[in-house]
Amino acid sequence: MKQQPLVLKNKIKAYSAIAGSLVINQAVDAQIAYTDVNPDYTSVNHMDTYSLDLNNDGTFDFDIIQGKIGGNNNIWANPKGTQNAIGVSYSSALFYPANLNANSAIGNSLVWKTGTGSNARFLAHSAPSLYTTWGFWLGAVDEYLPLKLIKTGQTYYGWARLSVLSD
Q: What is the rounded distance in angstroms from the CA atom of residue 140 to the CA atom of residue 34?
């Protein structure tokens, strides 16, 4: 009977050490800066471009572009610089920008692609003459595009909330 309080005391100490480290790590890693685009931006013209400056340093980090290429309708995200990237998902042997639901984790565990390959950038591609579409974004409403920004050796993760018409 006299050993039980010692065992319980050691378990409480072990739990406290783990809980304390989790709280410390969460406080260091979880800094959120939210920028509301007000009013919301709606693309209506060929080659409309919305440029994102995620850290408000006066340099655009990503472009969201809507336009036609060869008669096909396209919306794509273009990371600026050589290190900025878009979180992607795999489909039909190609990578396309992921569309995440609210509260999805965005971090190093995602697959990240820079703007070097066109399929890594297409949010949505529609070829009406071929009756085909690419990407995960056609008809998406309030979905989240994962973004990775690297500035002065520091990595930042974020997102842009987008909606794309089904046509």
A: 21
3-state class of 12 per DSSP? helix
Sign of CA dihedral 84, 86, 88, 93: negative
What CA–CA distance (Å, rounded) separates 69 from 119?
A: 14
Exposed/middle/buried for 101, CB within 10 Å: 0-12, 13-18, 19+?
Answer: exposed
Would you give the distance in Å from CA 128 to the centre of its chain? 28
Amino acid at residue number 104: S
Per residue in 5-48, pLDDT (tens digit) is 444 444 444 443 443 333 333 444 556 667 777 777 777 777 78
Q: Phi then psi for 150, rounded to 5 degrees?
A: -120, 120
**CA atoms of 139 and 157, how far apart (whole Å):** 25
Q: How many Å apart are CA 110 and CA 122, to the nearest integer?
A: 17
Contact 77, 66 (CB under 8 A): no
pLDDT per residue as tens digits for the range 60-78 = 998 888 877 776 777 888 8
Spatial neighbors of 36 by CB under 8 A, at least 6 apart, are: none
Q: How far, in Å, CA of 105 to CA of 29, rounded?
A: 13
